[in-house]
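> forwarded from #structure-qc
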């Protein structure tokens, strides 16, 4: 293998970005058939929440069973799944959501936002923004404390998490307590060294990245699509405390680090973890010790924030 990727990621690192890009319609069929189910620790239920321009979108709520009936003031994690705005949430996303719910005694809310190629910018971020606002307005009914609300997302979901924070600020709505970005896509300019270097990394590479941006924006300029690429915004000093996790062998590596450095320069407290030996999408290796270490870091940070 060209890259020294952790042996525990072997099962996912065999898939090139181009293969994933070609097979996403088939992957989506499989993902939609693999809906999450409640287990002995976490209950899963499906609701409908507001989306962009009056649409209704399906949304999942993961909640710890041992507290679901007795606690009415739980933290809430708004989880925006990745998948290049092309793919539905995967089994790995559902497992991570269950871990957050169980380990943090929190409710995890995951909007099933609408996808490309039919729905381009700004549908996904507006779907998630509208669900966030609905959660704020219905916090007491949902049994959550809106002062203990977190946003997180991986890859394209990290893009959504960052966009939602900026939209909330500009529209004068309540910001989350903190933000957690997992190998996020944040900069459409594609100017970093890792973007130039990693043209053939597993799962996602710079060639995929360009196709994604071209499809997502369809030549919209910055003024039309300001929340798509928040690394280009003039100010980010309103961001809450932020956790950033990046993969060593990922074209998105450097823009995640650059974004963290930018936040620090603007006075925001940031915790950064550079996961060595990892490629993009390493969360899919849910049985690996690597993801267990990452989960421990995330849970410790969220616990500290709350």
């Amino acid at each position: 293998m060209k890259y020294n990727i952790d042996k525990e990621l072997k099962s996912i690192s065999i898939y090139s970005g181009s293969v994933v890009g070609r097979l996403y319609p088939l992957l989506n069929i499989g993902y939609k058939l693999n809906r999450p189910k409640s287990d002995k620790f976490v209950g899963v239920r499906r609701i409908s929440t507001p989306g962009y321009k009056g649409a209704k979108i399906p949304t999942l709520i993961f909640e710890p069973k041992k507290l679901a009936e007795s606690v009415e003031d739980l933290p809430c994690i708004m989880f925006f799944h990745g998948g290049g705005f092309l793919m539905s949430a995967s089994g790995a996303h559902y497992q991570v959501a269950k871990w957050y719910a169980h380990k943090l005694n929190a409710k995890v809310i995951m909007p099933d936002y609408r996808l490309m190629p039919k729905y381009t910018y700004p549908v996904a971020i507006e779907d998630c923004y509208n669900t966030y606002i609905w959660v704020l307005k219905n916090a007491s009914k949902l049994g959550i404390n809106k002062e203990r609300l977190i946003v997180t997302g991986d890859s394209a979901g990290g893009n959504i998490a960052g966009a939602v924070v900026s939209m909330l600020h500009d529209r004068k709505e309540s910001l989350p307590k903190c933000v957690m970005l997992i190998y996020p896509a944040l900069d459409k300019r594609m100017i970093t060294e890792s973007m130039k270097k990693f043209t053939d990394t597993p799962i996602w590479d710079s060639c995929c990245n360009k196709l994604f941006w071209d499809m997502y924006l369809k030549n919209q300029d910055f003024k039309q699509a300001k929340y798509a690429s928040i690394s280009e915004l003039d100010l980010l000093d309103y961001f809450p405390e932020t956790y950033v996790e990046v993969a060593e062998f990922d074209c998105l590596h450097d823009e995640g680090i650059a974004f963290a450095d930018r936040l620090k320069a603007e006075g925001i407290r940031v915790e950064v973890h550079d996961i060595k030996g990892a490629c993009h999408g390493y969360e899919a290796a849910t049985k690996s010790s690597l993801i267990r270490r990452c989960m421990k870091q995330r849970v410790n940070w969220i616990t500290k924030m709350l």
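QC bot note: Strands lie at 42-50, 56-64, 74-80, 107-111, 144-154, 178-182, 241-249, 270-279. The radius of gyration is 18 Å.
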